[in-house]
Specification:
The chain is built from 7 helices and no strands. The protein is mainly α.
Length: 121
C-alpha cells in the first residue's frame, strides 16, 4: 500500500548553527522559508491537487448557495466561485508547477473567506 511521503523542507537543516542566529534570520525571510517548503512538496503535486479539489468541492462550492439564498448576495459570488474552482482544475490537470497550484488554492481560500465575511457580517 502506497503512502504519502512528506518531504522535509530544505531550510530546516540550514539553521543548525546557533552562533549567529540573528544574522541568519535576517538572511532568510519567512517568504523564503515558505517557498522552500512549497518547492519541497513538488513530488506530492498530485496529492495536493486532489486535496484542493476535494476541499473546494466540499467546502467552497456550497458557499454561493448559502450566500445567495440566505444573505441575498449578488450572482457574481457564484461566478467567482466557479472561476476559482475551474482555474484550480485547469492548473492541476494542465501540469502547472507546485507554486501555481498551491498559490491558486490559497487564493481560493482567501477569496471565499472574504466573501463570507463581507456578506455575513
Amino acid at each position: 500500500m502506497a503512502t504519502i511521503k512528506i518531504n522535509a523542507p530544505e531550510w530546516t537543516a540550514a539553521n543548525t548553527n546557533t552562533s549567529s542566529t540573528s544574522a541568519k534570520k535576517n538572511k532568510q525571510s519567512n517568504w523564503n522559508k515558505l517557498m522552500a517548503y512549497v518547492d519541497s512538496q513538488a513530488p506530492n503535486r498530485t496529492g495536493w491537487f486532489m486535496f484542493a479539489l476535494l476541499s473546494q468541492g466540499v467546502l467552497f462550492l456550497p458557499i454561493p448557495a448559502l450566500l445567495l439564498y440566505y444573505f441575498s448576495a449578488p450572482i457574481i459570488v457564484l461566478a467567482i466561485t466557479l472561476v476559482l474552482f475551474f482555474a484550480n482544475i485547469i492548473a492541476g490537470m494542465g501540469g502547472s508547477g507546485i507554486r501555481t497550484l498551491l498559490g491558486l488554492f490559497a487564493l481560493s481560500i482567501l477569496v471565499h473567506i472574504t466573501m463570507l465575511l463581507v456578506f455575513v457580517l
